[in-house]
Fold Nicotinate phosphoribosyltransferase.
Amino acid sequence: MIDIASRVYNHNWKIDPIVRSLIDTDFYKLLMAQSVFLNKPKTQVTFSLINRARHIPLAKLIDERELRDQLDHIRTLSLSRGESTWLRGNMFYGKRSMFRAEFLEWFENLRLPPYHLEVKDDQYELTFEGDWPAVMLWEVPALAVLMELRSRAVLKNMGRFELQVLYARAMTKLWEKVERLRKVDDLLLADFGTRRRHSYLWQDWCVQAMMEGLGKKFVGTSNCLIAMRREVEAIGTNAHELPMVYSALAKSDKELAEAPYQVLKDWQDEHDGNLRIILPDTYGTQGFLERAPNWLSSWTGIRIDSGDPVKGAEAAISWWKSCGEDPSKKRVIFSDGLDEDMIAHLQSKFRGRVRCSFGWGTMLTNDFRGLVPDDALAPFSLVCKAISADGKPTVKLSDNPNKAMGPSSEIERYKRVFGVGEQVSQQIIV
Amino acid sequence: MIDIASRVYNHNWKIDPIVRSLIDTDFYKLLMAQSVFLNKPKTQVTFSLINRARHIPLAKLIDERELRDQLDHIRTLSLSRGESTWLRGNMFYGKRSMFRAEFLEWFENLRLPPYHLEVKDDQYELTFEGDWPAVMLWEVPALAVLMELRSRAVLKNMGRFELQVLYARAMTKLWEKVERLRKVDDLLLADFGTRRRHSYLWQDWCVQAMMEGLGKKFVGTSNCLIAMRREVEAIGTNAHELPMVYSALAKSDKELAEAPYQVLKDWQDEHDGNLRIILPDTYGTQGFLERAPNWLSSWTGIRIDSGDPVKGAEAAISWWKSCGEDPSKKRVIFSDGLDEDMIAHLQSKFRGRVRCSFGWGTMLTNDFRGLVPDDALAPFSLVCKAISADGKPTVKLSDNPNKAMGPSSEIERYKRVFGVGEQVSQQIIV
């Protein structure tokens, strides 16, 4: 049936917004924003877009006006009443009132700060500067906008039936993964795919497919808006930006060596149980664990986000044993570049030895590989990172040197302070 | 575009549920349920469907199997996580935590109790028996189911374009009312049309039309599910069932005379501000006000729900004056059989003298008069009332003898106790 009013309305859209809500973001961003709001509210940071896939000329593919329209639209967003109610009233990780009243009041009044956009060598140079708690909330929506604008740029040349067949194939592809994963015993899997998703609607579809297809093996999504609308758990703890910024602020090598642990000390003051998850790889997992203070061994688990995941999990197990802890009571969360094969492999390898769970990202929400000519919809590695704090550059070493970032002199200094030696490179797919 | 999966799924629906949520009900039902849960949780009540429009043979129009399927479906419903979160976290009437934890825990575990259904003289005899807090929650969904099944029975004989034109006309009709009401100065209008709506989707459309068309003149809806989804205020206070059941439980004429005030005493212990609204007409407004205790004059307002609304409002104004209260600071809520003409008339008559507001019901959400042959979609007066409490019959006198109910010997006794003399009959349209 033709609904003339809807059609006229649609014709007059200026833009079709990609991000329509401030909570269309990862849950851990909100937890971290609260932590920063309480501990380092005045730190001045710069976040910057980094396209690790230099061969994809984003500024040629995506129209600058469209990009600005989308970013400008995000700056008009504010927390809606229902969203605030959900943040206040919902149970997160078994706890009500996860967010403090003063933080929520700040969040309710927040509009995202200005952005700075330039074009250089067919790439966008997109940066955000200002107070850490506000600037950090740009990361996920900025990435989601660039990923979806790139999808749209490819899709707009396709015909109606071509499009229908494309999505039919993508759905079939995902459903086959779900059927495979359904057979993995004791699996616990969450959606971590917001930032590099194909599109919002597609991520929402993927979550619903997992809800139906995986039942209790699907434990939730990192996306707050989808968690709220689909009434599933919001999942996530913390990320590299905390140790990176704390480290940049360190005034001496001694303070620098302590910074990653100071992050977790502040975190421990606020959170317990399943929110006490160590992210050890910012400056090398091995050294981090060797120098870790005693109290850290009592934490609930470790997230493995770079390097060889088997080696990372084995390092965690050895460390727990050396501290007199029982690894089979500990959680290991794998979240780096997973696909269904790797998930099944890791689960069979570590099931029983530790409590495994999986944060499945880009290959869940953006696996359009092989579905269009020239693989023009294949996902790629785009990130948005804190590059400086109070005027000093940030550094990341990671367990994969291809993920390292920062000025080379600072990288050398960090390697010395954190005792990082030879590292094994791994190809970054997403 | 044809979505084969959706079509196959739709073909296999057993029923298309009319009520899909336990909060697809009036807000005042939840407030009253909490009050009853706290004050009279063990009172045994019987609620019964009453079709005041005897000329409409519901049992001939509506298939009994379909009715049972819908009622059975409602018995499978329970409060969802998101609904509970909303009830816990949302601000109602400017207050958070309107509902107590023990009530919400009870509500989260509630399934509606069994129903009893028989057919007699082409009418359905539908009754519900049990603990008051649970049984009372049948009223609104039972009415909504019967109203919508009657709509569907008429609609299923219509063709596709006929249907489209029908809704186009209904929308036009409502929009003309909205345009008329937009010009009424200082109007405050709420949707009270859940129980006798044409359908859920239509009520939801009406609310959205008022949001856009009336702006701040539209203050909210009595329907909790729509209030949650559309992020507007949930509106409502209390109803006749409280004085009716309290009165039935009275052990003497003296206790009976006190019962309507006892209701408000219990209410006052729990609520303040805009929730302190007197509903004076259960046993005659005039006598109720004459015998009212002093503390009642400090309440915020009065709801006029039967009789001549001008006379009712004038009686309230005189009473406030006699108590030394300033009527211009008091609220009068009109909620009986309103249409746009009456709303505009009452507003112009009482604006400035009192604070007016309007609860617009059936003629908002079910005005399909004149749109199909034989007026087969015109709304009619269907109610579901408490008819007994702990084995004793309930009585309602109202300010309109056509709305009176109860055994005639008891009606006479109540008239004597409450000093009700001659009353003026008014035609009941809805």
Remarks:
- The radius of gyration of chain B is 21 Å.
